[in-house]
Amino acid sequence: MKNLKTPLIVVLVFTLLSFQSIEKILGKWEIEKVTVNSVEQEKEEERNYIEFLENGIVNSYITNEGTIDTEHSGTWVYNGDEKILTIKEEYVPDEQYKIVKLDSQNLMLESVNKEEDVVIQIYFKRKIK
What we know:
Blueprint: H1 2-25, E1 27-36, E2 39-40, E3 49-52, E4 57-64, E5 68-79, E6 84-89, E7 92-102, E8 106-111, E9 120-126
């Protein structure tokens, strides 16, 4: 019986840590900066944000080229073992990001695109209401 307790405890700890990460990601995040292959991109507007809701819904508001405001809604799934966040939106291919940093105020995502030789890093700050 003792042999069964150890693996069960390990699985329980990793499950709790995974839920903890999911709880940390919930809320609204403002884009602080974006880099493409380590080159910082010009910031368009202050209104760019992404919001992760408890029910697996994701909402985003992005200003493109200074004039086109786009609101998106979709779903998100987090794989705690690989620290991969998958965002699915209608009319857009699924996007996968590795969570590089996640704490109460900061979130850093890195694109997981093996087909292209482009690395996109997105830095967020938690939006306080």
